[in-house]
């Protein structure tokens, strides 16, 4: 399918042909959800930790003699039932990551791209290049295109001026094409791809 190409100033810059195998799929929410869950689980730090009875700083001596007191039979004050004792079955440092087949991850990305095109939230620009690293200039260009919540995907190398100018604008993310991912695509309203990014994606999924 063909899609109009625009410049950052809002002028027409021809058309580009998009592959139906990447941008023309019927989006499946279950596949997209699996990929997002995999991404977020891998991102989770898992540094939560509670001290067990072997780690708390407390005496390990028997609290009182076993027999003759009429009280329950206790040993260490580090036991979980006592105030200041260790936590029973508490959280430990671990990885929350789980496996997801590479083919499913690739399919999820294609479905996310197709969903953006179907929702008319995909814009193709000729290039992501700024003459100078001025946030004010870039903000004006975004207003012309109606971009307030957007993810920009450039080529393999990002223009340093564009990246510096865009990084101070709220709700605007800029990534090279190698960093494109399902979660970032979905968390922003619009997706803007450069022609170089489109070519790289079609080469990747060839």
TrEMBL record:
Top-rank taxon: Bacteria
Protein name according to UniProt: Large ribosomal subunit protein uL4
Role according to the record: One of the primary rRNA binding proteins, this protein initially binds near the 5'-end of the 23S rRNA. It is important during the early stages of 50S assembly. It makes multiple contacts with different domains of the 23S rRNA in the assembled 50S subunit and ribosome. Forms part of the polypeptide exit tunnel.
The UniProt record lists the keyword Membrane: no
Keywords: Ribonucleoprotein, Ribosomal protein, RNA-binding, rRNA-binding
Organism field: Pararhizobium polonicum
Compositional bias annotation for Basic residues: 64-77
GO biological process: translation
Quaternary structure (record): Part of the 50S ribosomal subunit.
Keyword Flavoprotein: no
One GO cellular component term: ribosome
Underlying gene: rplD
